[in-house]
Amino acid sequence: MSGAGERRSLVALLSAHYLSSFGNAITVVTVPLYVLARTDSAAATGLAGFAGTLPLIFAGAVGGVWIDRLGGRRVSVLSDALAGLLTGLVPVLDATVGLPMPALLALLFARSLVATPANAARVSLIRPVAAAAGVRLETANSWYQAAPRLGLVVGAPLAALLVAALGAAVGLYVDAAGLLLAALLVTVGVPALAAAPTTGRAGFARQLVEGATLVRRMPVIAAMTAFVFVTNLLDAAFTPVLLPVYTHDVLHDGRYLGWLIAASGCGAVLGTFLYAPASRRLLASRRRTMLGCFVVIGALRLSIAATPPPAVLIGICLLLGLAAGPLNPLLTTVTLEHVPEEARGRVFGLGSAVALSGAPLSVLLAGWSVGAVGLVPTLAAFGGAYLLLVAVALRGRSLHAMDAYAPGGSAEAAGPSAVDKQAGAGDERGGLAGQEGGHRAEVPGPTHPTQRDARADLREPGVGR
């Protein structure tokens, strides 16, 4: 049975993630209000938003290499500490020596650059820390993935109240303090052995290429990455473009936008927490759960095209969030189970970069489509694309390996993927860890053939050339 120390490590890791997530939610609200109050310029506010979001496209992939070189614990601490210091510098410099606009943009860019790898760094720590605490990986991931959703639902409104009462500068100080406290919690609460650096002496660029090569050589990870890219492409425009246009053109009242976003956020928080108990039986099949969630999301998006009244639309948004809730903890669990420890930082970093890369295109595409064919056809097209994507996924075999570690599943039942065939999936030693008497998170070290093959990929001299 796990001791109190191991459980405290998991609590410290989760607490740090919640503090960081709430800080990010505060930043989302306070930075634009701070810049707008300081410059009285919408253009300057837009530039600040651009400077803060641009690093998201590449910082995750680059940060993933550093996670595998230095260890997730070190990168998590450095990322939060540097982000906290840079965030605090903004109001300090502005109140003392002054802060020209170029310097402000540089600070916001640097803050986002150093803060981005923190999430992937903490994700890389979940599996060993949860296993030591005796907590199922699905449960730990549900608790973990609820943080950013809860941060937006609770943290963003609290930040707005804080700014209204005390000013935007105070919000930045609160964000900085939360990030520094998150760094301290990981420093003192998470053992160094849970995040030892695992990469060899290969160069930085070589390790980045190796991470991409590993994703390509693991069909289940490659399929999930492609799936997430397409679904994020369909999702990214929903809140910033489609919902605002809907409230303006159909409901004729912009105040409904807040209710719709709040309903979606509450549903997402609920769905994320409910996934942990439901994953034991009801949602035990990861593949069916993922595809089922996307079928529900597609159907609900199509129902919005029927222009329901406000009360019904709020209910639809709540259900949309509920259906989306299990996806992040589910996908994180599968990735942690299949990807070897020495490559998790790069795989999670690349996945984050790929997922975010489609967001600008999604917003542009949705805006063009609404202007060219109208809101209702655009909603129908985006919703129908979900169902088409699921239909395509059902024809493939790669996603079957998502259930290789699921309770009661097996590599054979999941269907042999190409990488399993290369590794010798028929080997009796390559059976599911769960068949040996426990969930995969409880079993130290990789035993599945997919992971053995992935480790060989990382050691193979020709990889990345």
Write a brief caption for the model:
The protein has 465 residues and is an all-alpha fold.
Task: Tell me the overall shape.
Answer: globular
Number of domains: 2
* CATH topology (fold) name of the largest domain: Growth Hormone, Chain: A
Number of helices: 21
Helix content: over 70%
Give the integer mean of the pLDDT values.
78
Low-confidence stretches: 410-465
Structural class, by secondary structure, is mainly alpha
Q: For the terminal residues, how far apart are their CA atoms?
A: 46 Å
Give the CATH H-level superfamily of the largest domain.
MFS general substrate transporter like domains
Number of strands: 0
- Level-1 CATH class name of the largest domain: Mainly Alpha
Labels describing this entry:
21 helices, MFS, Multidrug efflux pump Tap, Growth Hormone, Chain: A, single chain, MFS_dom, transmembrane, transmembrane transporter activity, mainly alpha
Give a description of the structure.
Residues 409-418 have a biased composition (Low complexity). Belongs to the major facilitator superfamily. Drug:H(+) antiporter-3 (DHA3) (TC 2.A.1.21) family. It is found in: Cell inner membrane. With 465 residues, the chain is an all-alpha fold. The chain has two domains: 1-187, Growth Hormone, Chain: A; 204-465, Growth Hormone, Chain: A. It has 21 helices and no strands. α17 (359-373) crosses α18. The protein starts with a helix and ends in a 6-residue tail after the last helix. Residues 410-465 have low confidence and may be disordered.
